User: Fold this.
Amino acid sequence: MQAKIIDGDLLDQKVDAIVNAWNRNIIPWWLLPQGVSGAIKRRAGLEPFREVAKSGPIPLGEAQLTGAGALPFRGIIHVAGINGLWRASEFSIRHSVRNASELAEREGFASLAFPVVGSGSGSFNEKQALEIMVDELAGMETPVEVTVVRFAAKP
Assistant:
């Protein structure tokens, strides 16, 4: 599958679900949401984070679906893209992409938008993270239309 890559704001995409590049759910949701998670919290409200917290620690690279709060999506897929030391790896990026895409397909979502997983708080090089994501998606067969959104601030 070939993903569409665009510059913009993840929260402005016209998709069924978005991916939140989240921690492993070990650090409390109310303590440090920043980057993508912080933007989601500001616009969606607290409910998606309360919901994901109920599941306990998320294994590295795994994905968890919640409601979208006040956002216009059918859901938010939270991926554990960084480890307990706040670092992303090729493993965490690849598995986050695969597990989020498979979860979206199981849930019947037609479209899904990702941020560049691991390139914010995870301190992974954005270009390399994007290459890993594109490579992982290229090896998958899924009917889900995937967009990867490189963050670009609005002028």
User: Anything to note?
Assistant: The first helix runs from residue 35 to 44. The domain at 4-151 is CATH 3.40.220.10 (Leucine Aminopeptidase, subunit E; domain 1). The helical segments are 35-44, 47-53, 90-106, 126-138.
